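User: Hi! I'm working on a homework problem where we have to compare a predicted structure to a textbook description. Could you give me the structure for the chain below?
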Amino acid sequence: MPLYDNIKPTLRSHLEAIRRGDRVPVIVVGELTDEQFETIRELQGREGFSLLESKEILYLGKHNYNSRAKENYSIDDMILQIESALSADSIVSMKRGTTLENPHPRIDGYGNSVNDRAVLEMTSRKPKAELFSVMPKGDNIKPQAASEDNENTAA
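Assistant: Happy to help. Predicted structure tokens:
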């Protein structure tokens, strides 16, 4: 699985720090599968881009947090989205940037069946992939605004 097994508590702390407005470092959250890595390199080669040299996936998280928080997603939701998008089954595409999309729909708890799509940034931290954002594709019903107390008690 591309997302490291023990990374969820670190992701939670990281996203909570972003919510507080703290500066956060870039962290390593997982690795691409061999097949995802080779597919990205093959597509980069066809397009004349520099080739990815590492399977590591880095994460800063500010853009991801701000985009999903604006849509009222909780930190728990964001972690589920990241975990799903970085599935070993996720399919690589370079149609609109480099993305990984889980082909298996996930029931999101808001009445939607979504396919989570990770957007990878390949340039600023080259030769590694940075998880720039995750989008739950098909989330026609957005979550209602929740208080921070409710978010902190969500499991």
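For your comparison, note the following. The helical segments are 8-20, 34-47, 62-70, 75-85, 148-153. The beta strands are 27-31, 56-59, 91-93, 98-101, 106-107, 113-121, 129-137. Good luck with the assignment!
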